[in-house]
Amino acid sequence: MKLIIQIPCFNEADHLPATLADLPRAVEGFDAVEWLIVDDGSTDATVEVAREQGVDHVVRLTNNKGLAAGFQAGLDACLKLGADVIVNTDADNQYYGGDVSRLVGPILAGDADMVVGDRETNTIEHFSPLKKRLQRLGSSVVRRASGTTVPDTTSGFRAYNREAALQMQVVSKFTYTLETIIQAGKMLVAVDHVPIRTNEQTRESRLFPSMWSYVRRNTVSIFRVYALYEPLRVFMIAAGLVALPAAVIWTRFLFFFFGGEGQGHIQSLILGSTLMIIAVQLVALGVVADILAASRTLQQRTLERVRRVELTLGVEPSHYEPGAPGAGGTAPTTGADAGPATGKAGEPREAPVAEPAGRR
């Protein structure tokens, strides 16, 4: 069995050596443990440092696409490189690498398809009391939306077996952490969690400039993903919130109408009717959205089958480059050599040879 540890990176040349030094090269239950970094358009020496540190594989995106896109690209590459289990960790050495074996334990035991590391955020010293409360609140909302029991839903230290990785499809541009848990809870993916340790903080998070930006983005992400999977419920709740005041206003109008004073309260009738029309429209939108959600589910299952076909045909990972010299892997599929990643048969194109100056 093969374990690949993937690390999404963006300008992490300074922190990557410590992160890699903390990761294991052998884990019980696996014949091979390999490292893969996803270079998300870094402008520093992230790739060069990674190769110096012995990274086996590099997925090199042409420009910065964001953490969620980098995570998805790494997941796809790990599957095509033959990973049986994929562990995702952060490049800032936030998570203790020695807990990789603890993280993959439930998968090796056959008890889970996806395992999320629980940082036990109440014990993290550099988290402010406000951040700890917000973490608990956000995680409770995600647990309710996903139907899982994960206590630390924003943890990026997690493991996937092949079945879980094949079913993951991130659409968010901000982060993958919340969306993949909600997705897993709605699909045939068994989710578990284990306690993990963390290292000292090396830098501030780059995902959000402030605490309130973090709250705003995560709130939008949770609502958006939940609406993708439960649109009828979302629209029915919205319709109920609009229909309730409409009913109250109509009741008020009827009270005065049967009391002989209805002529002076026609505004209530108009306002109540307007709100009720909006409520009916929301119900109709909910039905349409529910039909679209069913169609999206079918499309996601189709994409999963396409991935399985690609793996059977041996299509190479896209944006791929070999890691350290002698680390193995496949030929590059970046730039003009991207053919094998699109199913093109044959060897990658060789780089053109410059002509002697006298021939120009």
Structure description:
The protein has helices spanning 16-21, 46-52, 67-80, 100-108, 129-146, 162-167, 177-186, 211-229, 231-258, 266-313, and strands at 2-9, 32-40, 57-61, 85-88, 114-118, 158-161, 191-195, 320-322. It has 360 residues and is of the alpha/beta class. The termini are far apart. The relative contact order is 0.12. Residues 348-360 have low confidence and may be disordered.
Show the helix and strand layout:
Layout: E1 2-9, H1 16-21, E2 32-40, H2 46-52, E3 57-61, H3 67-80, E4 85-88, H4 100-108, E5 114-118, H5 129-146, E6 158-161, H6 162-167, H7 177-186, E7 191-195, H8 211-229, H9 231-258, H10 266-313, E8 320-322
Parallel strand pairs: 1-2, 1-4, 2-3, 5-7
Antiparallel strand pairs: 3-8, 4-6, 5-6
Helix pairs in contact: 5-7, 5-8, 7-8, 8-9, 9-10
What's the short story on this structure?
With 360 residues, this protein is of the alpha/beta class. It has helices at 16-21, 46-52, 67-80, 100-108, 129-146, 162-167, 177-186, 211-229, 231-258, 266-313; strands spanning 2-9, 32-40, 57-61, 85-88, 114-118, 158-161, 191-195, 320-322.
